[in-house]
Design goal:
By secondary structure, this protein is of the alpha/beta class. The protein has 10 helices and 10 strands. The structure holds adenosine monophosphate.
């Protein structure tokens, strides 16, 4: 696996790959890799060659009071994991490569970026879409892989690719969980032993929502009330939001009768975790639901 540090070399390297008529896959990450990231690489390996992965902790997607400085960094271990997973090239630029002096151009997906995560983390998605757009410009991959763990982010990036007529197809991959149900996240490393136990309340709340949906509940307000009640039962948890939204616009729904996300953002102590459940009618107009959990 080759490690590439500069934009100029990454562009040249990707250009050569494309010229060879090969199918280039890109997996953007912020490092501190876990099985969720590796699942994206595995999927990319099945569909592309070469597979390029990136590690860049993007300062522009962190708010002033957020965890940029202490975000987990494990570069050597990440390199080994990527090598083992069969990544062909790792793009790991310095901050000044991505944001040289005088950088002042941003990409913002209006509307979608202002709700939910965007409301709680102003400027977050503008930072995400700007860096993802840059990575897509630099590599110009055929496919780029993102996880459903960050459902709103994946939706925004898909929307950006459509609005800006990008040639890259955005692939959204399943959410990977720990055996006990906790969604894998680099931020889980912040949790104390006691908080790690408490963090399961997100999974349990979603599981309870799934159960209600299975038993015929379709009313979003009712689902939200029971989600909140469940979250409140955990002493270390403080809900930021618990919402049922349509999977297209991420706007609140009254009833679950089309593809929807049940979305959670919850503080466990000082650590903010997100999780979700995707649900859609089995076929158009069908009462039966299919869950992606
Ligand atoms: P991050 O390093 O947190 O920016 O994540 C990089 C990519 O990995 C994003 O597309 C995330 O959605 C994806 N990802 C993170 N956690 C998971 C998970 N538990 N399951 C699936 N994909 C994930």
């Amino acid at each position: 696996m080759e490690t590439i540090r500069t934009v100029a070399w990454m562009k040249e390297h990707a250009r050569q790959a494309r010229a060879g008529n090969r199918i280039v896959g890109l997996v953007p990450t912020m490092g501190a890799l876990h099985a969720g990231h590796l699942s994206l690489i595995e999927r990319a390996k099945r569909e592309c060659s070469p597979v390029i992965a990136s590690i860049f902790v993007n300062p522009k997607q962190f708010g002033a009071n957020e965890d940029f400085a202490k975000y987990p960094r494990a570069f050597e271990i990440d390199m080994q994991k990527m090598e083992q997973a069969g990544v062909d090239s790792l793009f790991a630029p310095e901050e000044s490569e991505i944001y040289p002096n005088g950088f002042s151009t941003y990409v913002n997906v209006e509307g979608l970026s202002e709700r939910l995560e965007g409301r709680s983390r102003p400027g977050h998605f503008r930072g995400v879409t700007t860096v993802v757009m840059k990575l897509l410009q630099i590599v110009q991959p055929n496919f780029a892989y993102f996880g459903r763990k960050d459902a709103q982010q994946a939706r925004i990036i898909t929307h950006m690719a459509r609005d800006l007529n990008l040639d890259t197809e955005i692939v959204v991959c399943p959410l990977v969980r720990e055996p006990d149900g906790l969604a894998l996240s680099s931020r889980n490393a912040y949790l104390s032993k006691e908080e790690r136990k408490a963090a399961l309340v997100l999974y349990r709340a979603l599981e309870a929502a799934k159960n209600e949906l299975t038993h015929g509940v379709r009313d979003a307000a009712q689902l939200q009330t029971s989600l909140r009640r469940k979250l409140e039962s955990e002493r270390l948890a403080t809900a930021d939001y618990a919402e049922v939204v349509d999977a297209e616009r991420f706007e609140p729904v009254l009833k679950v009768n089309k593809p929807c996300y049940v979305l959670l953002a919850v503080f466990i102590g000082k650590t903010r975790l997100i999780d979700n459940l995707y649900v859609e009618p089995k076929s158009t107009g069908s009462e039966e639901l299919v869950f992606h959990f």
